[in-house]
Amino acid sequence: MASTTVTLSSLDSGPETALQQQQTPGRLRWRPMPAPYAEDRSTPFAVVQTPDTPVPCRRCLQDSQIGEEMLLISYDPFLGDSPYRCASPIFVHSKACEPATFPSSGGELPEQLRKRVLSVRAYDAKHMMQACDVVDGDRLLETCQSMLADNNSAEYCHVHFARPGCFAVRIEKASLDACLDG
């Protein structure tokens, strides 16, 4: 396993400002890592890095501290087969961190999503893309509510950090079976 120090441009959407808390509507829920995740550090797709700017951990949904060791891995968030299925890079803390717990519906949207530019892609039950957009994090919930409206066929959204392309979170209709596997 390689170990490197990297310089990343800031992933934040702008200067530090106080972010308003946002509550996810009760008809939606967020899932940090919907597909199973097995940490295998022996693969070339797992690299220990020490970023010089905070990066988002996908396991605990907290940003790293400057100089903290992070593991950069390849992760596939899809729960079914699709032409859109692909792995993307994500960071997790190199040392074990407490996995984020997600509510069965609603709940506060994690800060790391509210402060970054995001790519949102909505998929139907057959995992085919139905809509997509790039938004500031403070518009994520309104975008997902629109894409996942009852009159639309989309059932879930994959959210990625727009600049680096890393998978961020899945936002889905709370009515979906939590163990749905496509």
Can you give a write-up of this model?
There is one protein chain. With 182 residues, the protein is mainly beta. It contains two helices and nine strands, in the order E-E-E-E-E-H-E-E-H-E-E. It has helices spanning 111-114, 140-147; strands spanning 3-6, 28-31, 46-51, 70-75, 88-93, 117-123, 129-136, 156-161, 167-173. A five-stranded antiparallel sheet has the order 2-9-8-6-7, covered by helices on one side. The chain has a four-stranded mixed sheet with strand order 1-3-4-5, with no helix packed on it. The chain is globular, with a radius of gyration of 16 Å.
Question: Nutshell version of this structure?
Answer:
It is built from 2 helices and 9 strands; from the N terminus they run E-E-E-E-E-H-E-E-H-E-E.
Distance between the termini: 33 Å
- The succession of helices and strands, N to C, reads EEEEEHEEHEE
Number of helices, where a helix is a run of at least 4 consecutive DSSP H or I residues: 2
Helix content: under 10%
Count the beta strands: 9
Major sheet, described briefly? 5 strands, antiparallel
Percentage beta strand: 25-35%
Helix-and-strand structural type: mainly beta
Low-confidence stretches: 1-17
Major sheet strand order? 2-9-8-6-7
Mean pLDDT: 83
Produce the secondary structure layout.
Blueprint: E1 3-6, E2 28-31, E3 46-51, E4 70-75, E5 88-93, H1 111-114, E6 117-123, E7 129-136, H2 140-147, E8 156-161, E9 167-173
Parallel strand pairs: 1-3
Antiparallel strand pairs: 2-9, 3-4, 4-5, 6-7, 6-8, 8-9
